[in-house]
């Protein structure tokens, strides 16, 4: 069976998993960690760094290190979220050519799907190394409240990384799959997912292998990053009060503060107080140095961030209300995401649902495991699993007066379709313009425009006399199709809504080709490194035998010639190990093996004599 993986592409950390022998398993990365930081950097030499290696150099290379790119994926340039990220990020964010967001690293401009693809490509290589074969297909998770553009941008990132994304599924749904996998029960569960950059809550009914989403809601700009920014701003204020220096424009100092804020926030999940110690945080033009040393208590952290937790609880309340579900009907509350380790979050959830959250799943791994379960089910017909998800946003059209008319409401199970008959609004109107919108505002201009088309050729008549039927359809993959039909003539016009990531097809193809070239280089580099290590081991063994062989063979001209050739091979090996020519290194490896075999034969023969 072909290898297909599940990937949780997270804001702070990412996970890749697979189902092996019926058991979902997280694949550890090259460092042995089960989570990989969602960070990308470009070094001074132009080398791409991903994961832990990018995180370790973030302080000294802050302007060329990207974190939390997921908060920008699929967003328009004029989005308030983009402005918020600009204010707190050390790296440069610029407007792309298609009203999208791009990032500048080492004077080169990268799209957000491209940055995300670097992370996905790293996870793909991790999986391939673990499985000993190629990985071409994946299920990737996204926040339940992502819109079509954000989902398409994630799919484009997978394509750039060399992955066929066979399904995009919602993170809370994936967590529910992992929670209920292989269990024979019927339960109604709430998935509370507070990660590094986003928040989602979903209500699901689980039973007999069926996972049905009842309701979902969220905030795509609410997560651990916001908690860390609160601590950062507090530290900036404290430092300014003590030193008189405002360090908001010092990128290296900001990165050190960000790292310290994240570390302190994590520590305060298990201790009541922690010390934030940053020596030489800032040096003035005159050479005066300023240090930061400040205690932060759990109570202070909770005071700084309580309103953020309250926002998540308000969303939970709205979700239950929209689904007409009483909190007493919830059997289990599942906590997902690293932020759910925070005691304030756990208390807030327990108090709202009047139920202690379930601790039976790993908050960092459960989404990736669920993605792997869905991936296995999609390629294995024998899997008895049915996932019924919902559309997170309402779909409809703009009608006369600028109002938004919903045809498919949020939390409708997909696949689905719905239609409505509209009439002309002007006398002798011969065409209608259909604006396809997504959102929850009654004001059409406040919702997101997905596409538009014109139905022409209508007969001339008084207003209200010509009827046009508009039909919306959503597939299981979330693809939206809209058709408009003149009921008098049967004339029809339709559109398949194609969300955009901000990249054109030409740009995507170019990035895919670049990605393929990079993979060739990486594999060649890895092969060279394996051969170099082999040569290094052979050199060590030859050198260990050299004194014995020299003592045995140096008395004859043949022996001295053999020793000279061996020395030449060792010298060539030293040179080739410092180069990058795999073919030459392989030739040296062969010569070393022959030399080693000869040395061993000489020593063995002498010992037997």
Automatic annotation (TrEMBL):
It comes from the Bacteria. Transmembrane segments: none annotated. Keywords: ATP-binding, Chaperone, Nucleotide-binding, Phosphoprotein, Stress response. One of its GO terms (molecular function) is ATP binding. SUPFAM superfamilies: Actin-like ATPase domain, Heat shock protein 70kD (HSP70), peptide-binding domain. InterPro entries: ATPase_NBD (IPR043129), Heat_shock_70_CS (IPR018181), HSP70_peptide-bd_sf (IPR029047), Hsp_70_fam (IPR013126). It holds the Pfam family HSP70. Belongs to the heat shock protein 70 family. NCBIfam families: PRK00290.1. This is Chaperone protein DnaK. It comes from Enhygromyxa salina.
């Amino acid at each position: 069976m072909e290898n297909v993986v599940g990937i949780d592409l997270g804001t702070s950390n990412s996970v890749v998993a697979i189902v092996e022998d019926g058991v979902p398993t997280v694949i550890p990365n090259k460092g042995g960690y089960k989570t990989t930081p969602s960070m990308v950097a470009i070094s001074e030499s132009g080398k791409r760094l991903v994961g832990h290696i990018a995180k370790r150099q973030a302080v000294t290379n802050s302007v060329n290190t990207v974190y939390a790119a997921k908060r920008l994926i699929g967003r328009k340039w004029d989005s308030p979220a983009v402005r918020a990220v600009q204010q707190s990020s050390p790296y440069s964010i610029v407007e792309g050519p298609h009203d999208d967001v791009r990032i500048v690293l080492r004077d080169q401009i990268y799209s957000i799907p491209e940055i995300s693809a670097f992370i996905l490509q790293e996870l793909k290589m991790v999986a391939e190394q673990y499985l000993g074969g190629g990985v071409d297909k994946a299920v990737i998770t996204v926040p339940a409240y992502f819109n079509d553009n954000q989902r398409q941008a994630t799919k484009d990132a997978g394509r750039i990384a060399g992955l066929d994304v066979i399904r995009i599924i919602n993170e809370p749904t994936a967590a529910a799959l992992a929670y209920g996998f292989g269990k024979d029960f019927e339960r109604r569960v709430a998935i509370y997912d507070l990660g590094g950059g986003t928040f989602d809550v979903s209500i699901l009914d689980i039973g007999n292998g069926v996972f049905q989403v009842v309701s979902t809601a969220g905030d795509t700009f609410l997560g651990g990053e916001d908690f860390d920014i609160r601590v950062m701003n507090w530290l900036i204020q404290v430092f300014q009060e003590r030193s008189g220096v405002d360090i908001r424009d010092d990128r290296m100092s900001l990165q050190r503060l960000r790292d310290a804020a994240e570390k302190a926030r994590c520590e305060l999940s298990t201790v009541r107080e922690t010390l934030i110690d940053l020596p030489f945080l800032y040096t003035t033009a005159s050479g005066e140095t300023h240090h930061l040393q400040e205690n932060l208590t759990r109570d202070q952290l909770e005071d700084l961030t309580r309103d953020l937790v309250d926002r998540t609880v308000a969303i939970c309340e709205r979700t239950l209300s929209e689904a007409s579900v009483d909190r007493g009907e919830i059997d289990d509350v599942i906590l997902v995401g690293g932020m759910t380790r925070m005691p304030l979050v756990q208390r807030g959830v327990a108090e709202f649902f009047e139920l202690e959250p379930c601790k039976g799943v790993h908050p960092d791994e459960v989404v990736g495991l669920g993605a792997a379960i869905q991936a296995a089910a999609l390629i294995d017909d024998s899997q008895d699993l049915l996932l019924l998800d919902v559309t997170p946003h309402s779909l409809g059209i703009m009608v006369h007066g600028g109002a938004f008319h919903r045809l498919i409401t949020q939390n409708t199970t997909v696949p689905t379709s719905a239609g409505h008959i509209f009439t002309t609004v002007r006398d002798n109107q011969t065409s209608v313009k259909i604006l396809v919108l997504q959102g929850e505002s009654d004001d059409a201009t406040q919702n997101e425009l997905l596409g538009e088309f014109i139905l022409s050729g209508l007969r001339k008549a008084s207003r209200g006399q010509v009827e046009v039927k508009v039909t919306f359809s959503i597939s299981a993959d979330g693809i939206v199709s809209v058709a408009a039909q003149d009921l008098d003539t049967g004339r029809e016009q339709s559109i398949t809504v194609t969300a955009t990531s901000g990249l054109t097809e030409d740009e995507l193809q170019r990035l895919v080709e670049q990605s393929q070239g990079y993979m060739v280089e990486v594999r060649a580099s890895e092969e060279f490194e394996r051969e170099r290590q082999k040569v290094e081991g052979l050199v060590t063994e030859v050198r260990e035998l050299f004194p014995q062989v020299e003592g045995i063979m140096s008395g004859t001209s043949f022996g001295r010639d053999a020793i000279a050739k061996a020395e030449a091979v060792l010298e060539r090996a030293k040179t080739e190990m410092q180069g990058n020519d795999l073919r030459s290194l392989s030739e040296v490896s062969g010569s070393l093996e022959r030399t080693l075999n000869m040395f061993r034969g000489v020593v063995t023969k002498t010992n037997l004599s």
